[in-house]
Design a protein that fits this description.
four-stranded parallel β-sheet, globular, six-stranded mixed β-sheet
Length: about 400
Amino acid sequence: MTEVVVLGAGYAGLKTVRDLQKQSGDFHITLIDRNSYHYEATELHEIASGTHQPDKITFPIVDAIDTKKVTFLQDKVEKVDCDAKTIQLEKTGNMSYDYLVISLGFRSEGFGIPGVVENALQMVDVDSANQVHEHVLSMMKKYRETKDANLLKLVICGAGFTGIELAGAFADERSAYAEIAGVKPEEISITCVEAMDSILPMFDRDMANYAMDVIQKRNITLMLGAKIKEIQDGKVVYTKGDDEAPNFVEAGTIVWTTGVSGSQVMEESGFEQRRGRVVVQSDLRHPHYETVYVIGDVSAFMNPESNRPYPTTAQIATQMGKHTAKNLAHQLRGEATEDFIYNEQGTVASIGNTHGLGKVGKMSLKGYPASVMKKVIVDKSLVDMGGLKELLAKGRFDFYH
């Protein structure tokens, strides 16, 4: 029987399995992930802020697969050998495959800046996001004892999508933090430090200005043009413009959201890659291995207009998974593969539970309607990844508040 192995149960990997398991044929699928659950990575900021508990954005992988056709193996991938067609796993050892889908996740990118790993909190999975929340609470409790005002300060390094959404979620929980610390909500300081002179470059100036206005009204400080040089214990060191004189902002909580790279497994396996991403062919296969697909966060699929890789998002990962399942079905039947065409349907960011902005098709959304659309997108993802059962159990139906 032909063995199809899928590494990673994120958006790309799980979508591949869910679509491929519907096909008939003499093949078996093994899905491997280090966690027993799938999580909605786009909602990690809600765990980090405490807006939701981890079980709100997770569900068991086995609930989303057909166990008659798919075997789920909880293990950590250490290395891939495409020449030998084997995968090295931490607990299981070596495993062979006929077809392989590499859809391993992302890791935080520190860009070589000193102190990032040691002194900043990451937000790359459920555990690390939950650690951010626990850290914030511990700082609030510690303030009651020490009265150190820096413990009330939350600094986010990076004002991209993740940073802005985290800042908005922190603002939603400001009153809860203040109650723990025994202070007024306005005493809880939230700051985003951003190297660029503007935010959200994927939107036009009007949309970006709207976002900045919402951020200001929510009492979030936005430090633009601040190039981070080092993260010290409780301190972000940065420079402004051409002036190399160091400045710093102190905080009890420092969260790093400036960028991500693909899994380090790609580098350790000897793939030709950049920041953990492999440039793939037009059908999403590895350029040198016709039975290996590389999708999701570890894939660099080129935009023909810009000649640059598309950003790694949940949207493109899900579409990649769907297309990979289609191409695997073609190959299993001895048919030719099809080229992948990314259909960008829009982008929506939340700035808290009831504020947001984005574009869906040609339509621009601001404020409350954007926040509703963000929840609709999350609900659609739950259906794609887990089905109606997971939507009913985990869905975002709080459209009116």
